[in-house]
Specification:
- By secondary structure, the chain is an alpha+beta fold.
- The protein folds into two domains: 98 residues, Beta-grasp domain (Ubiquitin-like (UB roll), Roll), CATH 3.10.20.30; 128 residues, Alpha-helical ferredoxin (Fumarate Reductase Iron-sulfur Protein, Chain B, domain 2), CATH 1.10.1060.
- The protein has a five-stranded mixed β-sheet with strand order 2-1-5-3-4. A two-stranded antiparallel ribbon has the order 6-7.
- A hairpin with a 2-residue loop joins β6 and β7.
- The longest helix is centred in the last third of the chain and has 14 residues.
- It is elongated, with a radius of gyration of 20 Å.
Length: 243
């Protein structure tokens, strides 16, 4: 890894253009202080290639919509500083893998979103609108297990990083199964058994090879691999009952 040393240097940026059968196009971008990968993509689009397509929204690491492959690894580009990932003064940027390409750096997130439905992800309350919320002890083992995996924002980085998804598109993937884990541990969820059964359906957690790429690449340091392991343990112990 070679770090950029001064602002007089030019950065060579290889960006994927077109659809799946597209190609890399190289652009020269000045190096700037505290420059993020998203800054680089934005500069290319504004000054060199107005037709370049990419996604972003918050720019501060909240929404996850700017996720792309950067030098072969899925990352949030708004929080990835160039000087941390540069390789011999070259930056290669592609759309997330394991998802259909739409154009340039934009991919179709529908297959990823669909996995949540297949994993029984929608929450279904045990209470009606007219009833008070169910009381849950925040220190109970089930609540603590759910809380540890609750902050996923559906950015798709773990899905892109997953080797099992790469060779088995029927696999539900880390994010959907992580969500299933939070729900089977949420005693307010009225369909815990159904969610658990769906997590073990074809393409479910039994397909995970425990490579750990999802955990290594999660931008907010969740551990989907640990959630999937938890689901597998429940196959022997049954769903937790305590509040």
């Amino acid at each position: 890894m070679k770090a950029i040393q001064n602002s007089e240097q030019l950065l060579s940026v290889r960006i994927w253009r077109g659809k799946k059968d597209g190609r890399f196009v190289t652009y020269q971008v000045p190096v700037r202080d505290n420059q993020t990968v998203l800054d680089v993509v934005t500069e290319v689009q504004r000054l060199h290639e107005p037709g370049l397509s990419y996604r972003f929204a918050c720019r501060v690491g909240v929404c996850g919509s700017c996720a792309m492959m950067v030098n072969g690894k899925p990352r949030w580009t708004c929080r990835t500083h160039v000087n941390k990932v540069i390789d011999e003064d070259v930056l290669t940027i592609e759309p997330l893998r394991n998802l259909p390409h739409i154009k340039d750096l934009v991919c179709d997130m529908a297959p990823f979103i669909d996995t949540w439905q297949k994993a029984g992800a929608p929450f279904s309350s045990t209470q009606t609108r007219s009833q008070p919320p169910a009381k849950v002890d925040p220190e109970s083992p089930t609540r603590r297990a759910a809380d540890a995996s609750l902050q996923c924002i559906n950015c798709g980085v773990c899905y892109s990083a997953c080797d099992v998804v790469n060779w088995n598109r029927d696999y539900l993937g880390p994010a959907a199964l992580n969500r299933a884990w939070t729900l089977v541990n949420d005693v307010r969820h009225s369909k815990r058994q159904q969610t658990f059964d769906m997590a073990f359906s074809e393409g479910g957690c039994g397909s995970c090879h425990s490579h750990g790429n999802c955990t290594r690449h999660c931008p907010i340091e969740l551990s989907p691999s640990e959630s999937i392991a938890g689901l597998k343990r429940l196959a022997f112990t049954g769903l937790p009952k305590e509040l």
